[in-house]
Amino acid sequence: MFNFALPTWKNIPEVAFIGRSNVGKSSLINSVTRSKNLAKTSKTPGRTQQTNYFSLVQKKKAEKNTFSPMYAHANLVDLPGYGYAKAPDKKVSKWQANTQSFLQSRKEFGTLKKIFLLVDAREGMTQFDRVIMDWLDELDTPYSIVITKSDTTSAGKLLIFVNEICMRYHSQLYGDGGCQGPVVHVTSTKTAAGINDLRWAMDGDFLEHEI
């Protein structure tokens, strides 16, 4: 992670992680990157209130201790959580405008390649999650749904959950249209279920190097 202005190198692809507070974004990023402390985790929901960039670099360049963001071959973007984030009302009210503006600007810049919408298996698809999916459909940038904490619920409930997402796509496809048919990843950072599949999907879709 680094404290710079937004990267300006158009040859470095970015993928963004977005989700409700306490959905497990930090834990998922750590699992995907095989790092225990890359993204800081907290028991207090809503601690991520700024956009954080994590650069993926080749080992040889990282070992030289001369890191610069321009050496990255990809960036993972951790966006602030939404929902019941424990932040001042004014900050929460700005979340939607700031997030939409960020995603739109990075898409127009040409570096935002994919968005991962994280949804908690314990909560199911909330109304705000559906609003986010509508945003992503309008943005017209590829996105995938990542169900987190799958170890906390039954296989039957997970199946219903996945079907609900698929039915949303099906109903809109034959209705008003304008929505994508996102891939759904079912994951757990505790059991590592689905983590390799998610890592391979990221690598195959838009990252040219192994994470």
Walk me through what this model shows.
By secondary structure, the protein is of the alpha/beta class. The protein contains 6 helices and 6 strands. It has helices at 25-32, 59-63, 89-109, 127-139, 155-173, 195-205; strands at residues 14-19, 52-56, 74-78, 112-120, 143-148, 184-186. A 6-stranded mixed β-sheet has the order 2-3-1-4-5-6, with helices on both faces.
Annotate the secondary structure layout:
Elements: E1 14-19, H1 25-32, E2 52-56, H2 59-63, E3 74-78, H3 89-109, E4 112-120, H4 127-139, E5 143-148, H5 155-173, E6 184-186, H6 195-205
Parallel strand pairs: 1-3, 1-4, 4-5, 5-6
Antiparallel strand pairs: 2-3
Summarize the structure.
The chain has helices at 25-32, 59-63, 89-109, 127-139, 155-173, 195-205, and strands spanning 14-19, 52-56, 74-78, 112-120, 143-148, 184-186. It is α/β, with parallel strands linked by helices and 211 residues long.
Q: What is the ordering of alpha helices and beta strands?
A: EHEHEHEHEHEH
Number of helices: 6
Helical amount among residues, as a percent range? 25-40%
- Kindly state the number of beta strands: 6
Structural classification: alpha/beta
Shape, per Cα inertia axes? globular
Mean pLDDT: 79
Q: Low-confidence parts lasting 5 or more residues at pLDDT below 50?
A: none
Largest sheet composition: 6 strands, mixed
Rounded Rg: 17 Å
What percentage of the residues does DSSP assign to strands (E)? 15-25%
User: Oligomeric form of this entry?
Assistant: single chain
First-last Cα distance: 15 Å
Spatial strand order of the main sheet: 2-3-1-4-5-6
